Amino acid sequence: MTLWVDADACPGTIKELIIRAARRLKIMTVFVANKYISTPESSHITSRRIGVDPEAVDMHITEHAQAGDVVVTQDIPLASGLVAKGVIVISTRGELFTEQNIGERLSIRNFMQGLREAGGTTPGPREFAQKDGQRFADTLDRVLTRLLKATNA
């Protein structure tokens, strides 16, 4: 199992939570971004700087993530493609994307994008709050604990 992080827009608090979990559980974790991402010295934590193409990070994660891996991303289209591959996907706000909810999330995202492209104004994402970080930590812990139990059983 590998924990992949779409790190370009990952809040610092979430990055720190991921690093702590990776160290504690000794899980291979890869931060992927279009820019340099500082990561601590660790045999379990790495970063990969991918080209400047806006889709390069998504393509890299899609190409390398496998069923049973975990990906942290805010990117709904990326999440949709990964869920279809059997990858477990968590948003930076702690939402677990599943086969049951990803279609609706993608439809809403596409609708809002269509409104913006037509000149409409849509509200941006709400400000990242402490409760979002706690929800993420809870979801990540629950997912990783379940996966580690399954691999050790």
Q: Any overview of this molecule?
A:
It is a single chain. By secondary structure, this protein is an alpha/beta fold. The chain has one domain: Rossmann fold. The chain contains five helices and six strands; from the N terminus they run βαββαβαββαα. It has helices at residues 12-25, 56-64, 76-84, 102-117, 130-152, and strands at 2-6, 28-33, 45-49, 70-72, 88-90, 96-97. Strands 3-2-1-4-5-6 form a six-stranded mixed sheet, sandwiched between helices. β1, α1 (12-25) and β2 form a beta-alpha-beta unit. α1 packs parallel to α5 and α3 (76-84) runs antiparallel to α4 (102-117). The model has no long low-confidence stretch (mean pLDDT 91).
What would you say the CATH architecture is? 3-Layer(aba) Sandwich
* Average predicted local confidence, pLDDT: 91
Supply Rg. 15 Å
The backbone outline, from C-alpha atoms, is: globular
Structure summary, number of beta strands: 6
Structural class: alpha/beta
Order of helix and strand elements from N to C terminus: EHEEHEHEEHH
For the record, what CATH class applies?
Alpha Beta
CATH third-tier fold name: Rossmann fold
Share of residues in helices: 40-55%
Spatial strand order of the main sheet:
3-2-1-4-5-6
Spans of at least 5 consecutive residues whose pLDDT stays below 50 are none
Please tally the helical runs, counting DSSP H or I stretches of 4 or more residues. Answer: 5
Distance between the termini: 15 Å
Number of domains: 1
Main β-sheet description: 6 strands, mixed
